[in-house]
Amino acid sequence: MKIRTHSESHVVQLDDGSNWQIFPGDLATTLSWKPETDLHLEHCRDGVSSHVLVNAADQSRVRVIGADDTWPDGEVKNALKGG
């Protein structure tokens, strides 16, 4: 999948029409993403996110949830404290 839009730093729309919120602690990883960046989506149940987006070029991963979902407060705080 490719990026259709990434106009907001924390939301990305993929070329399949899906919209994803990027975990706040993972935003720096997305700074190098370009429209031609090849991503794939994987299910994830780590207590914080439902999925991860994986950059095919370097295998970097960012945690994501649906754009209309909300992050679980306690889990986000714990994840950010842990690094």
What does this structure look like?
The chain is mostly beta strands and 83 residues long. It has one domain. The chain contains 1 helix and 6 strands. The longest helix has 10 residues. 16% of the residues are buried. The mean pLDDT is 88.
Task: Reconstruct the topology from this structure.
Blueprint: E1 3-8, E2 11-14, E3 19-22, E4 39-43, E5 51-55, E6 61-66, H1 73-82
Antiparallel strand pairs: 1-2, 2-3, 3-6, 4-5, 5-6
Radius of gyration (Å): 12 Å
Q: Report the major sheet.
A: 6 strands, antiparallel
Helix-strand pattern: EEEEEEH
The figure for the number of domains is: 1
**Mean pLDDT value:** 88
Shape: globular
Low-confidence stretches: none
Strand order of the largest sheet: 1-2-3-6-5-4
Helix content class: 10-25%
Name a few traits of the molecule.
single chain; 83 residues; mainly beta; six-stranded antiparallel sheet; 1 helix; globular
In short:
The chain is built from one helix and six strands, in the order ββββββα. The chain has 83 residues and is mainly beta.
